[in-house]
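S1.2 Input.
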Amino acid sequence: MITNNTNFTRRQALAGLGGVSTLALLPGCAGAAYQAATPPAQANSATELLNDVAYRLLEHEPTRATTLGVDTGRYAYLRGKLEDQSPQGQEAYANTLREDLARLRAFPRPGLDIETLTNIEVVESAYELALDGFALPYGDTPVGNWRTAPYVVIQNVGAYIGLPRFMQSDQPVRDARDADFFIERMEAIPAALDGELTRIREARGMGVVPPDFLLDKAYEQMQVSIASAGRGELFSDYLRGALREADLPESHADRALALESGPIAEALSRQRDELRIQRGVATSDPGMYARPYGEEFYDWALRSSTTTNLSPDEIHRQGLEELEALHARMDPILREIGYTNGTVGERMQVLAADPRYQFAEGDEGREQIFAFIEDRIDWIRAQMPRAFTVLVDPNLEVTRIPVAEEAGAPGAYGGAGSKDGTIPGRFWINLRTTDLHRKYDLADLTYHETIPGHVWEGEYSNRLPLIRSILAFNPFSEGWALYGEQLADELGAYDDFKVGRLGYLQSLAFRACRMVVDTGLHAKGWSRERARQFFVERNGSKPQEVASEVDRYCSWPGQATGYKLGHSEIVRQRARAEAEMGDAYDFKAFNTAVILGGNAPLDVVGNTVSRYIAGATG
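S1.3 Output.
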């Protein structure tokens, strides 16, 4: 077990570990080598290699195979598997990444086309970043994903949250074989929960304990999950309904209830008991600066979240500069509509209190919000031929975030559906209170999460080779979604609703605030309250909204910095294209080139734009 030794600095401790994953040094691993379930295949072409690499990754994260709709044919067995959350399982995952990174680096490059070269470069970048994360002594490492989580179980991280949502939304139950796979996955849940439990116990042994306020949220949510499991509400009720809909016998649901109310509930209780122990030794310090190896973890989290080498000070400073520039655009609009006294943040607080822009309370307001979102989706769908030369037609659902998750969840999130189209893209909206949303800011949120944002972008990524559909990079994913908000404005979304443009600009300013607040929390010693007040006072954000936002940054350090950085880089690349191309520049062609280039690190996005410029000016 790694302990905090006062004779070593954090940086010295990590440097002494070299390039070896510290997971191999944890109890239960004993330095043993673990191999992937499927050995590497001999690849005669880059296409075969990339496909093999993709499925070897999915061996470790089989739920992603289901979400993508590729757990079919010879890979159907993945539909009944879960990720091995134990230290040994995580070390096996890291070993697979090392092997496949070496295979990619060794593959001959002469004769490969630009798209294939790009695909290889993207995978190499993702795997290098992930391996740096696995080499840290704690945390949950994203592989081509957006979440940088030092705490494996907390208010918005862990199987206790993710698996019920996944099983109820993405796990198919179409026939008897699917029902068998559903039960097989349920049988694997106790081991997954206990694997997480081992890791959070070991982290506590290193002195890594989450802030007390996050533990309070997680503990309360865990209590709800345990009670729900005892009643069969996490899995078996859903399965019973799906079996009836598919006209299948309900015996599988009886088995599911026994698993859920027995072994699964017991494993959840073991995690709850550990959270109680952690709460007894926790502090209120919100940032990584207060954790062992926190500086090293945050440095990696920023690299993973931004695909840059920017320092916390550089990101903090850029956030402040972008915030000032955006407020300079908001000020004249506020004056025009009669808000002339106070700072931009103060005036936006007054605007938020205006009943004209509030939704009704309770279920009436929730219905208003759903109707508003559907109207905006219909409008923006009709505008897409004006913005792209290649179009998609997303299968899209708007869904309320489960009530049990709302307290720890953001205001909304969204994502693409499966590659085969059977699972729709979704816009998850937090409706714990309708006061989270305003009529002047819900439109831009809709464009961000759906079209032309996350769901729209994901449809294009799903057309790429499988490994590119799996891998996503935070600054592109979120930067593109913000760029989608900008496109909506440029297409006329707010021409007849100036207050709506204020909401859009405040949304961009909110993301600039995130750059300041995230670095403030984790590198500059900010308190939780100071972080909250920065949003409220400087940007006029709603207190209820930013309370959960700030807590999210505490459990996902670095992630919040990628949004505005990614957006600013896409806008910078567009300005470059316009300047270099002159009359040859085309708005629709630029947007299409970037989105067809796929989700990638920011330097690869720049290469995509360079190829677009060269091809168009030839």
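S1.4 Remarks. Residues 576 and 609 are 9 Å apart (CA to CA).
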